[in-house]
Model the fold of this input.
Amino acid sequence: MTDNIKIWLQRTAKTYEFDEVRIADATLSQGTREHFKHFLDNGYHGEMKWLEETSERRLSPENMWHDAKTAIIFAKNYGPEHNPLDDLTASSSGNVSVYARSKDYHSVMKGRLKQIASQFVSKCKSDVKVFVDTAPLMEKPLAVNSGIGWQGKHTNLVSQQFGSWLFLGVILTNATLAVDEMAYDRCGSCQKCLDVCPTNAFPEPYKLDARRCISYLTIEFDGIIPEEFRAAIGNRIFGCDDCLAVCPWNKFAKTAFDTRMQIGEKPGLIPLSELLSLSEADFKKLFSGTPVRRAGYKKFMRNCLIAAGNSDDYSLIDIIKRYLDDEVVAVQAMAIWALHQLCDKDSLAQIKSGRNDSHPDLIHEWALLG
Done:
């Protein structure tokens, strides 16, 4: 029966355009639990308070669902058609992370997994729960246990077949199935992913300080991005692919194509002049159905202003000035910083002389400029 189910799962996964499906026990090792506790104890999670609030449930799938016995892990390749590091040279354009240039994988994959789960229940007469990165479930360690890949020194999953470009989804079940052999670390002495990080977000191999990570800063962090990270952000306005893109295992990765995840115009590299001219309604329309909308309009504009400051594009100055009167302090602050990067001293002094900013954070930003 188990062999038949595995064959069925493999066939069905292909039907729903998944690239891999493997099985693991619904348990996590003591080492994984200690690693996660260390992450929290050091404050590496930053403002992602939900990680701390749900920590007990994250430590084991059984803590979230007592009856869970088996995890069926599905992987989907999203390998890009080009090297994302090449996009960093397009300084006058905003650069969106590869995973966010198509339909939101959460909703697309969850819909498919629910259909597979329904068929699985009919076959096995068991209970199931479906997860795609939105519940307190640690998918990556489960994927390692199943043999899909290993967690590299950048803490992301790496596959021999697909490199660093994988989405994961999990079906937990109370059925007992034969498990696959776990994957073993194949990073060796390589540390390209650590060396390429522009903000030094890895205090040591296999450990990430999210507070220094550009993906965290541009997506999760709500405030004024610290000055030490602004120049390093470059043109990245939503996420960062550097540690993924540089991985040597990507030479085996295949370019992904999934008609049901494509959108009309891929929001990848877009001129900053266009992005900074977007109204909130325009923003929602342009990024409809993509993960970018998660950032929200104001945070996204904050990110675009940082990119503008790094652009050397002096034609953006007049557009940036408009954001000096934004109602969100973080947006105003980044407009001040961006103008300092693009304006000469006399022009900047003239702009400053016409203002009376009283918020402490804005006073601080002007003071940073001398």
User: Anything to note?
Assistant: The chain has a mean pLDDT of 92. Strands lie at 20-25, 70-77, 93-96, 128-131, 150-151, 157-158, 166-173, 236-238, 269-271.
